[in-house]
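A brief tutorial aside. Many learners find it easier to grasp structure tokens once they have seen a single protein encoded end to end. The record that follows does exactly this for Small EDRK-rich factor-like N-terminal domain-containing protein. Read the sequence first, then the structure, and try to relate runs of similar tokens to stretches of the chain.
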Amino acid sequence: MTRGNQRERDRERAAARKPNAKGSQDGLTPEQRRERDKKALEEKAAKKAQQAAGGGTGTSTDNKNKGGGKK
């Protein structure tokens, strides 16, 4: 076994780098969490619809040849 406890140490380091991880420690009930997520999704959808209607920056529609592959 060449790796020893490296995986475990890497997991601990990754967890230490993200102390504000979303999870059950946010202090919300499942109902509150659903409401929060629903509101965030609605805002995201409205923003996306606004960009589509107004043109926005056009980053997703103007990059048709982004791949640069040969034909």
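Self-check: The longest helix spans residues 30-54. If you spotted this yourself, you are ready for the next section.
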